[in-house]
User: What shape does this take?
Amino acid sequence: LMGSQAVSAAAHAGVRAAALPGSSNASVVATVHRALESRSFQNDVNVLILVNDKTELAKPLITATTGDKVSVTVSVNATKVAPNALRLIGISLTDTELHQTFVMRKE
Assistant: This one.
């Protein structure tokens, strides 16, 4: 539960950074990592940033204008967050991913 909350908080911090004028993909990823700095899985997360539902290649965040929709998704494999202790009785976290997406408008 705490890992899921950390992923959620990091995604929220990331989208807030993405909504600010002059933000870049690198600054958003750095914000997400700072939000997770006390977590053992900080370097295992994936950060997906979309502008108007387009990836960095099609629409770089740095070129986004006021009113554009920005979204940040933070994801991590559940085994990086918690031990896979129940696998011995047939319940595995191996294929489970924790993820959270937040959406805002560019300021």
Notes: The helical segments are 2-19, 25-35, 78-81. The longest strand covers residues 69-77. Strands lie at 46-51, 69-77, 97-105.
